[in-house]
Amino acid sequence: MSEQETPDRGVRIGDREVGTHAEPYIIAEMSGNHDGSLDKALDIVRVAADAGAHAIKLQTYTADTITIDVDTPEFRLSDDHELWGGRSLYDLYEEAHTPWEWHEPIFTLARELGLHAFSSPFDPTAVSFLEDLDVPAYKIASSEIVDLPLIRLAAGTGKPVIISTGMASMGEIAAAVEAARSTGNDQIIVLSATTSYPADPRQSNLRGLPLLSGAFQVPVGLSDHTMGIGAAVAAVAFGASVVEKHVTISREGGGVDSAFSLEPHELALLVSETRTAWQALGEAKIAARESEQEGLRFRRSLFVVEDVKAGDPVTPANVRSIRPAGGLAPDLFGLVEGRTFRVDAAKGTPLSWDIV
Questions:
Q1: CATH class of 12-61+97-281
Q2: Minimal CA–CA distance to 199: which of 252, 142, 275?
Q3: What is the pTM of this model?
Q4: What residues are paired with 188 via a beta bridge?
Q5: Mean of pLDDT values over 43-48
Q6: What percent of the chain has pLDDT over 90?
Q7: Which ranges in the chain belong to alpha helices (H)?
Q8: Where in the chain are all domains bearing CATH 3.20.20.70?
Q9: Which intervals hold domain AFP-like (predicted)?
Q10: What is the rounded CA–CA span in Å between residue 133 and residue 117?
Q11: Which of 74, 236, 257, 353 has its CA 20 to 30 A from that of 23?
Q12: How far is Cα 327 from Cα 109, in angstroms, rounded to an integer?
């Protein structure tokens, strides 16, 4: 069995099975695209539900739980960063964080609309807070993959743990997966990711997805920061069972992550096209499909194309390769040419060994 055919163990998030046997699970990441407005946050939930996404995801931190208020080069993004050049981490996270008191109304609306609602915790207090809200899963962000105590804490709840692997080596991914499994929790999903914003699709390395699946025997997916949906759809062909994309109401007037986020119509297209890609995978076999049975009737074969009498020779004028099927194979014409008909045959008679 090839790496791409290696079955994963499957994971259940809420009422949905996640794995190669199910259609792709689409996570709409809100991040900071609420732009400081609870009303906008709730609108993003509605957009995700209308588009057919399966989950809405938040990020649960404050500037003080994720970093400290220090403005030195170590705590500042590079000046040439495409989106947030020169900003301090504290300042960026102060703007982008989702107030914790918003989580409950956001999650409540999501559930009412049929969405799963969960979050990425960034410290132990976030895990405790999210447990009180009874989230169905946890997402570990790429930068937190090295925080093994945080992974053990999230996995220790018994909920599924989705681990993003941006920047990580195979050794670091293995350590994170082992940290989760050490709690007795085997409900693990591993996402390939490129931690740049927006990400260049040429850096996506989707051919690595079967490696992750084969190495860890878990469902895999893509946390995608590229523009558009092309990379995400392609990922399904390499075994992605989960796709996470940032979502905004509008890139023009969106929040801190809006520049690389999907707008509502694009999210709907992501849902439909990843489903189509998954359906198109089918089975690893080459044969006529069930839906092609009618088409098989109209393959070419040798037919009598002019009325002939017994004793007439077979010639290109009275026997040709035409549609439909039913006669001898076209390649057999060389064997029958020049032979004579045993019986009279009307135009439209399939050529067979019985009549020559």
A1: alpha beta
A2: 142
A3: 0.87
A4: 161
A5: 97
A6: 85
A7: 38-51, 63-66, 89-96, 100-112, 124-132, 148-155, 170-181, 209-216, 230-237, 264-281, 293-296, 333-336
A8: 12-61+97-281
A9: 301-356
A10: 10
A11: 257
A12: 64
Q: What is the pLDDT of residues 185-238, one digit of tens each?
A: 999 999 999 988 889 999 999 999 999 999 999 999 999 999 999 999 999 999
Segments of the chain assigned to CATH 3.90.1210.10: 288-356
pLDDT digits (tens, 9 = 90+) for 9-20: 789 999 999 999
Does residue 148 carry a pLDDT above 90?
Answer: yes
Q: Residue type for 209, please?
A: L
d(CA 281, CA 66): 41
**Closest to 309 (Cα-Cα) out of 347, 341, 261:** 341
Class level of CATH domain 288-356: alpha beta
List of residues 6+ apart from 24 with CB closer than 8 A? 221, 236, 240, 241, 242, 243, 274, 275, 277, 278
Q: What is the DSSP string of 108-150?
A: HHHHHTT-EEEEEE-SHHHHHHHHHTT-S-EEE-GGGTT-HHH
